[in-house]
What does this fold into?
Amino acid sequence: MEFSDPKGIYQQIADRVQEQILRGIWVVGDQIPSVREMAVELGVNPNTVARSYQALVERRILANQRGRGFFVTEEAVSSIVQTLRNEFLEKDLPKIIKTMRLLGIGPEEIANHFHGNETNPGEDTDET
Amino acid sequence: MITSNKIGKMIEFENIQFGYKKKTLFNGMNFALESGQIYGLLGLNGAGKSTLLRLLSGLLFPQEGSIRVLDYDPVQRNPSMLSEIYMLPETPHLPTLTDKNFVSRMARFYPNFDSSYLESLLKEMSVPRGQILTSLSLGERKKFHLAFGLACRPSVMILDEPTNGLDIPAKGQFRKIVAEALAEDRILIIATHQVKDIELLIDNVLILHEGNFICYQSLSQISSAIRISQETNRPDSNSEKLLYTEPSLGGYTAVWADTETNGEHQDLELLFKAAITNPEKFTQFTSGVHKL
It folds into this structure.
């Protein structure tokens, strides 16, 4: 794992856990690596990992069973999706819209691509 | 209930006065370090990092004031204190002995010595075995000494420039090994100029400058109080919140005192440069950020 991103390591560890859950590598009820295991794997401070895990507990993505470790909760996936949706709508989409305005691309054109890509990805070449 | 002296404040400097013949280094220095944390000790050459480390391990005596380490006075050099401290110098001075002979002579001073841990660390770092230690390369000697020091299981582990002379894969191993070595009842102090090597490891940043700490904060606290931006034009150097700026590809990188950042943008190197370039402004800024 590279940490070239200016994002804090703390955030990157949380992202990594969420990604593993979204991709179904860790499923509901699974025990995830302990703070120490994760810290050693990534070569980062265990206290940083603990803070990341704690933030995920507060968001009900992980449950901390005292003395046993951290587990993926039932609501983990929906909670992650909800957060990422909000992030996309609030952070990424405005940037896309800004670029669209700059380049004069309208929503219809995007809609065409959106639907076209779903049903027939080769549509563009058919026109000529 | 935990009544051990190994949880909480482990090291305390009170009103420490120290200097060499012509130069006063510390003039009434006060600070405390707590267990379960990794401290990064930074500072320019001659800032007093090594002196500070020697003071706390009983190798130098303060001219005034008192130091407590694990409830001992380092000046007394009590053997039970010394068996709980391991100081890894920048250049390991190892005797002309084989690894085995070195361990059999030295390990007896450390009651917590763990030989199976030593074996696993030496194996992990691929340190050649059965050779006279002085015939090893600098990197290998440093790895051997790091492994030995950790295997002594000290409560206070001091590492002076631990990554100097290590090759790139060894630096990664170093991070893993140190991450694993941190425990609730232990303090790690890493003094270094290689800030990139320890950025992911440390809890707290101590920047020593002209005998004082101009930064004495947790890395996450201080990171969330600064904003790093890329600017096309050179930012106005008179602007109150500007801590530091340097040319970068396509413009300027600027460090701002700004708590309105979203999340932590950690860059220890920029932080250090900001502190050293304009210590007065930086001190003013850090005085507003929660201290350790």
Notes: Residues 138-151 of chain B form the longest helix (14 residues).
